[in-house]
Amino acid sequence: MRTDSGNPVSRRSFLKISAATIAAGAAAGSALHAVYETPREKGIRRVPTYCDLCFWKCGAIATVRDGRLWKIEGNPLDPLSRGRLCPRGTGGVGAHFDPDRLRTPLLRASERGREVWRPVSWEEALDFLASKMRAIQTNYGPESMAAFVHGIGGTFLKHTLKAYGAVNIAAPSFAQCRGPRDTAFRLTFGDDVGSPERTDIENAQCLVLIGSHLGENMHNTQVQEFANAVGRGASIIVADPRFSVAASKAKFYLPVKPGTDLALLLAWMNVIVSEKLYDKEYVGKYGFGFEQFAASVVPYTPEWAYPETGIEPETIRATAREMARYRPATLVHPGRHSNWYGDDTQRERAIALLNALLGSWGRKGGFYIPSSMDVPGYPYPAVPKPSRPALRAMSNKFPFANEDISTSVREATITGQPYPIKGWMVYATNLINSLPNQDETIRAIRQLDLLVVVDVIPSEIAGWADVVLPESVYLERHDEMNPELFKQPFIALRQPVVPAPDNQKPNWWIARRLAEKLGLGAYYPWKTIDEYLEHRLTAGGYSYEQLKKQGIIRGKQPPIYFDDGAPAQFDTPSKKIEFYSTQLAQAGFDPVPKYTRPDPGPPGYYRLLFGRAPVHSFSRTQTNPLLSDVMSENSLWLNAREAQKLDLKSGDYVRLRNQDGKLSNPIKLKATERIRPDCVFMVHGFGHTSKALRSAYGKGASDAGLITRYKNDPLMGGTGMNVNFVTIEKGA
Fold this sequence. Notes:
Layout lengths: L10 H7 L4 H7 L15 E7 L8 E7 L2 E7 L12 H4 L2 H5 L8 E3 L8 E3 L2 H18 L5 E5 L5 H10 L3 E3 L1 H18 L16 E5 L9 H12 L3 E5 L12 E3 L6 H14 L5 H7 E2 L1 H7 L5 H8 L3 H14 L3 E3 L11 H15 L47 H10 L7 E5 L3 H4 L3 H8 L4 E6 L11 E4 L11 E3 L5 E3 L14 H11 L11 H11 L4 H7 L1 E3 L22 E2 L3 H5 L19 E6 L13 H6 L4 E5 H6 L7 E6 L8 E6 L6 E5 L27 E2 L6 E2 L4 E6 L2
Parallel strand pairs: 6-7, 6-13, 8-9, 8-12, 9-10, 11-19, 13-14, 14-15, 20-24, 21-23
Antiparallel strand pairs: 1-2, 2-3, 4-5, 4-15, 16-17, 17-18, 20-27, 22-23, 22-27, 25-26
Helix pairs in contact: 5-18, 6-18, 7-14, 9-12, 9-13, 9-14, 12-13, 15-17
């Protein structure tokens, strides 16, 4: 099919554009192999790269057999993967063969909300995009063009946008995922936990998981280390409303009432302080404000916590003593997705303070001090100085936000204050499912002059776009190199293994060509991605040829613990660990966390909880044929006694209706004793409403569609989303 025909196409035709020829797949007996031309090369070829199925970016080696992508395995040189990939990473081959992936640029041929498209050439698509961006620049200023970016693949697009003059570049991973955790640890220790997290699970003798689902949330290195910790007999403590995979490995399982985690943390700290079980030498040497902190936790006894959390006082005492027994090799895991109830920075700060009491920051078995290899940046021309600052710099609403807040960009788009946002560029994130309250997101989109989506699949957000640009998947492209901040420093390279099958392009090409269309070609002095990568590596004294061959260049590991000579530096006002935060006090917030009882919800409703599965990444992978074959739909966990009351059994299909009347797709019930009776749980990312996602459309239910309410964290603006409640209705 010609991609520059200029003729509008219906949704039915659009499905043909975004999919392979299914009839050919049936004839071949395999949908995976249906899409691709007869291979030209013969033999086996192995190409190192790194994975893009999650932010962990594991080193991998892909194998091509007779010209066809065959399999992908872990790179044994990589400190992250250690030669092994998780189920998602191993299934990454399916991203290349995905029958629903985007195949050519598209321009909208009708009003937003109706998926009627016109397939066009790249030149026409980028000309249209550049003209719209120039109009926004002229009419409103370049700051009115905003971006939402997920992952390292957005590096070059962000460079183009900054050269254009954009200043609002948000990552939903901050306000919807890790932001409260990172903010809390910076307030306490003066440094982030990092991504990947600096958790020394492989040496922990006691591991505490609070709503952190290792084994389901498949972060490769941590899961490998967790399995080894279980195998060597480490003491595992799990606090979670649901008996997760991790809970099944625990010495102590605490089925804490949802929303009361901070009460449990405060009670643990009460025991450790009152019984003088904390690391006195460590606290005395590195701590600031301990006396005020100790006085603040006096009221939070285990007896006080019992009616709040549902956990017996003696269990609270026993688990606190267990943590103290193994200090400093006790690691209270900070988690990843930390936006729960709106007080999330203070809850995460309590986790940081508990680790500080145990002396685990900078100590073996706790949190190591990471390092990275020095790779100089490319000598780009300086980008223009903006005439208006970013939205977060113009407001003191969230004083501890150190990144742009996605929902604040959305709010400014709706209100036009403090200045109008008229264009969005969305890269590799499905905002319809990643931001809370889908109606607010759609309301904001309707205010835009331009919405451009760069993605590999026709996700729900792509269905609202004016321009859809199909990116090649990670196995088909170069990306920015990755000089990872980790326990052992290394540099990793992502490089093409096979060519893109259709008219897809890599993000660096899209960014560079768009810059040229905008008259910003001077901001890309390099001509090819190889030239760019080689320049940076050579400037750092490394060999590009070696990196292409091995995929990994490893550096020397410096000391990673205080006891071995790693610097004990704390970038806080006191230059110490802040048990009492002067920063919070001066800003009018509690300097030591205080507990606020959560909203119990309407009578007869269940609190809606959601999480991850080991074979899927958010809502990105449901059309991957290898991964969807393992898990094609999600299910609803409901306590077995509650199911009996409702005359329901496992395998029945039900619908959920939230407190605002939103009704879900049908979802299969899992009646189980492994969850508390006051909540339900589902895996995030299912229930797709984009009909262009043919293989995933309508399968399972969407938690995102039920998250109509959220609470903003007052410190950094994160959106607590575990504040929605549902009832259960029989039938499909």
